[in-house]
Design goal:
The protein is α/β, with parallel strands linked by helices. The chain has 15 helices and 12 strands. It has 2 domains: 10-242, Type I PLP-dependent aspartate aminotransferase-like (Major domain) (Aspartate Aminotransferase, domain 2), CATH 3.40.640; 246-370, Alpha-Beta Complex (Aspartate Aminotransferase, domain 1), CATH 3.90.1150. The protein is 39% helix and 16% strand. Helix 12 (245-264) packs parallel to helix 15 (357-369). The longest helix is centred in the last third of the chain and has 20 residues, at 245-264. The termini are far apart. Bound molecules: pyridoxal-5'-phosphate (PLP).
Length: 372
Amino acid sequence: MKNEPAGIKPESWLVSAGRAPEPGAPLNVPLVPASNFILGSKRAYSRDDGTPTWEALEEVVGGLEGGKALAFASGMAAIAAVFDQLAAGTVVALPDDCYQGVAGLAAAGAEKGRWSVQRVAVDDTEGWIRACGVADLIWLESPSNPLLTVADLEAICAAPRKPGAILAVDNTFATPLNQQPLQFGATVSLQSATKFIGGHSDLLAGVATTKDEALWQALKKSRELTGATPGTLEAFLAVRGARTLAIRLERAQSTALKLAERLEKHQLVTCVRYPGLTSHPTHETAKRVLKGFGAIISFDLKGGAESADRACRNLKLIRHATSLGAVESTIERRAAIPGQGHLPPSLLRMSVGIEDADDLWNDLNAAINSAE
Ligand SMILES: *Cc1c(COP(=O)(O)O)cnc(C)c1O
């Protein structure tokens, strides 16, 4: 299995990786529904040894991230496999703003006495550098969900770490096209392939990528023993979705900037967060560590939570739905989600899709105006 795009750009790798080269082989990745294989080869049982379909997804994402990948049942399954590496009594450093599932997983383990959790502000680079010296798992998510704060991964990954510590980056919002944490020196990079990699809101999958062979083996063991294996159809669909990731992301992030600029001028909008805006508190860091500013924006409405809920109901083109990273634009009031008490009550998180930018703006503008 090749793990690095050799001499070609990531855009070309996304299209070409995972395909068999032999004459007569199917051009596309084979959809192999198999639990077991004829004994005597490298595979016996798929939960232990993988399948050709999972491996295609691993090759595609691993090559982009710049390491060796493992596919999982979901983003959370991949994340849980990393937490599964922690010994009793260890310390986890977690961002103050991050995916609520990760905060929930960390809190559940802390309650059972497995580890303790220290929260660090995403943009507190000095705080993260200090955490690197004491934590056994340094968990970063950047840009963060849903405040879109960008962490200085370059500086944090270069800081001295406690021996054996894992520095993990949830790279879902950036995708490996916009950010490659392993290149900065992170131990492992995580993708919820449910989001941008899949890109069509029709699957759950996750991928963990690392350059550390021992960690890769340990994550694979964890996948085997907890049964956190991806579905065959899901892995196939994730590869199919990944083929168009570059053009989807390019379109979506250019539209996201246009919408963010227009929202910033809207009288009923009090705050717009998008790393590509010069007004964004971590815009300078974003310019340095990200190759693109992404397709997620969040903004607050003057009229508060009730206006925000009304705006969501008034939309016609943009779907009122959770999740993100797909071809269709979706929007959601995040403080309505349990465990998100730190957020402004009216904060709307929008995942910008690939529709026409003016159509999206007209829909958004009309919904905000009629929700006042
Ligand atoms: C969705 C998401 C996850 C969890 O992924 P699942 O595939 O839903 O398990 C983790 N991190 C981030 C940033 C996400 O957006």
